[in-house]
Amino acid sequence: MPGRERAVSLAATSRTARTARRCTRRQWCGRCWPRDNWPTGWAWTSSAHERFATVDALSGGRAEITVGRGSVIESFPLFGFALEDYEVLFSEKLDLLAHLLPEAPVRWEGTTRPVVVAIIGGPARQFAPLVDLYRRALKQAEQPELPVGVHSPGHVAATDEQAVEEYLDPFVDYMNRLGRERGWPPMTRDHALEQLGPNGTAYVGSPETVARKIADTARLLGLTRFQLKYSMGHLSHAQRLECIRLYAEHVAPRVRELLA
C-alpha cells in the first residue's frame, strides 16, 4: 500500500478503535466499523486483516470481520478484473484471509457464524421466503439449523423527529448516488420517508422505535443477530457517535427485553 494511503488507513483505524472502546457491543449491537473505509476484498487482503487485528486489539476484542459477496460489480473493471473470475477471486481472497486470521487473537461465542441477509430495500417480510428456503435446504441436507442475521441501514437519535431530520437527506443522497450508478430512478422524499417508516428498510427513530422494529424483524425471520449500518452519506461524526451510544446503551437492552 502506498505511504500516503497507508497513513490515511491507519488514521481511520485509530478513529475506529476509539469509537469501539465506547461501544459495549454484544449480540444485538451494530458494528462500529466504518464500512466506507474498509479495503475492497481484492485490493489488499493482508492490509484488511492488519486493520481488523489492530481494531480488535485496541477495542478489547470487540471487533468482528464479515466477508461477503456484495451486489456491486462496477468495481471489477476499475481494478482490472474480469467479472467471469468472480468465483475464483472470492475463493482465493477468502482462503488468504483464513490463513492470516490464526496469526491474531480470535474471539467468538457460539459454534457457527450466521448467514446475514442484507436488506437495503423493501420490508423485511419480503425476505421471509428466502430465509425459509435456507432453513428447508439445511433440513433437506440433514444439517442442523444455523443462525440467521439481518444487516440494514438505520439511525438512532433522542426522538423520532430528530432521527428523521438528521437521516433523511443523507439517505436520499446516498440512494440516488447508487441509483445513478445502477440505473435506478431517483428516490423522492415521499419514498424515502416510506423507507424510514414502520414497514420500510431503514431502522430510524428513537431508541424505543428502533428497538421495537428490530424485535419485530427478529420475530418475523427468527433472527439471532441484527447489524445496523449506521454510516450513511454525510451524517456528521458527532451524529454517528451518538447513534452508537444510544444503540449500545438503550436499543440493545430493550431488544433483549422485548424478545425475552
Task: Describe the model.
With 260 residues, the chain is an alpha/beta fold. The protein has 2 domains: 1-109, no CATH class; 111-260, TIM Barrel. The protein is built from 9 helices and 4 strands. It has helices at 3-22, 45-58, 75-78, 86-100, 128-140, 160-182, 189-195, 207-221, 237-259, and strands at 115-118, 148-156, 203-205, 225-229. Helix 1 packs parallel to helix 2 (45-58) and helix 8 crosses helix 9. The longest helix is centred in the middle third of the chain and has 23 residues, at 160-182. The chain is globular and about 45 Å long. The N and C termini lie far apart (47 Å). It comes from Ornithinimicrobium faecis. InterPro entries: Bact_Lucif_Oxidored (IPR050766), Luciferase-like_dom (IPR011251), Luciferase-like_sf (IPR036661).
CATH class of the largest domain: Alpha Beta
Q: Please report which band the strand proportion falls in: under 5%, 5-15%, 15-25%, 25-35%, 35-45% or over 45%.
A: 5-15%
Low-confidence stretches: 1-43, 106-112
Helix and strand sequence: HHHHEHEHHEHEH
**CATH superfamily of the largest domain, called what?**
Luciferase-like domain
What's the total number of strands? 4
Classify the secondary structure makeup into a structural class: alpha/beta
Q: What does the radius of gyration come to? A: 19 Å
CATH architecture of the largest domain: Alpha-Beta Barrel
Instruction: Determine the N-to-C terminus distance.
Output: 47 Å
Arithmetic mean pLDDT? 78
CATH topology of the largest domain: TIM Barrel
Count of discrete domains:
2
The residue fraction in helices comes out at 40-55%
Number of helices: 9
What kind of sheet is the major sheet?
4 strands, parallel
Shape: globular
Protein name: LLM class flavin-dependent oxidoreductase
InterPro entries: Bact_Lucif_Oxidored, Luciferase-like_dom, Luciferase-like_sf
Domain Luciferase-like: 50-115
Keywords: Monooxygenase, Oxidoreductase
